[in-house]
Specification:
2% helix; disordered C terminus; 1 helix; six-stranded antiparallel sheet; mainly beta
């Protein structure tokens, strides 16, 4: 039996598939030892799991902005540890990650050791992707000041740059006990930046049932509106008008999978997975 799962999505998230704003945080204006930073209007928290990570500004010229040395970055100086781990996390905001530069070494800042790096993306505590890189790390200062580019458009052959998350977790392994991170390039999309109070105060509700469905479904709305069905990669598959009250629809022609039901106005929360 076909089982199709729907996500209903609010008007505040209408630009989910629109062009996002790419920004690179170089940390140069952030305060030394701060556990937070702000970029493009979004506040990020640096959450330490193993070791203590915060903004480092005590060693000028030891960062890397992608093209040249710079002065500030995130690291765990003074608290190097096996399996060092931290997260870059927002509250009330969502984002996507393009790339960042990472410095990995042992306690003595020797980079010519064997280790690995695990990159994990989470959304509301749920892991959306995880990948462990074991080779290709810079082993000396060289032309990038000792930093290795971690490109999420091609991390071990996989593209994770389009996955929406609210937390990026970095974990070192093996002999890598010191971690420095700089030039954090991420994507902000006004359609996926949603304050928690906006979810609570919206007046219009949108209900979809049964969910999952094998074809027929009912959509209940509190106003006349238009509904659009998208695939997860943003392709418009179907659209139809809806009247206030309960509307009947059928998506039997769609293959098994997860789809997104979007309205230009209506519910302001994600419901019905």
């Amino acid at each position: 039996m076909k089982r199709t799962i729907f996500l209903t999505i609010c008007s505040l998230l209408i630009s989910l598939f629109s062009f996002g704003q790419t920004s690179t945080e170089q940390f140069e204006t952030e305060s030394n030892a701060s556990p937070t930073f702000t970029d493009n209007g979004v506040i990020f928290n640096v959450i330490s799991y193993v070791g203590t990570f915060d903004i480092q500004a005590n060693y000028p010229g030891t960062g890397w902005n992608g093209t040249a040395n710079d002065n500030r970055y995130i690291d765990n100086s003074g608290s190097v540890a096996t399996d060092a781990s931290f997260s870059i996390k927002t509250t009330g905001n969502l984002f996507k990650v393009n790339r960042f530069w990472i410095f990995l070494s042992n306690n003595a800042l020797n980079q010519n050791v064997v280790g690995n790096l695990t990159v994990t993306g989470k959304l509301s505590g749920v892991t959306k992707f995880t990948q462990t890189k074991t080779t290709g790390f810079v082993t000396s200062l060289g032309s990038t000041n000792g930093y290795t580019l971690i490109d999420l458009t091609n991390l071990n052959g996989q593209n994770y740059s389009n996955i929406i998350i609210d937390e990026l977790r970095i974990t070192s392994g093996g002999a890598y006990t010191y971690v420095g991170l700089d030039a954090f390039t991420w994507v902000k999309d006004t359609g996926i930046v949603l304050a928690t109070d906006e979810v609570k105060t919206a007046k219009n509700e949108l209900a979809v049932y049964p969910n999952p469905t094998n074809g027929p479904l009912s959509i209940k709305t509190e106003e006349n509106t238009k509904a659009e069905i998208y695939s997860q990669d943003g392709k418009l598959l179907k659209s139809f008008e809806m009247n206030k009250g309960t509307n009947q629809a059928d998506i039997s022609e769609l293959s098994n999978g997860v789809y997104i039901l979007k309205t230009p106005s209506g519910s302001s929360k994600i419901i019905k997975k």
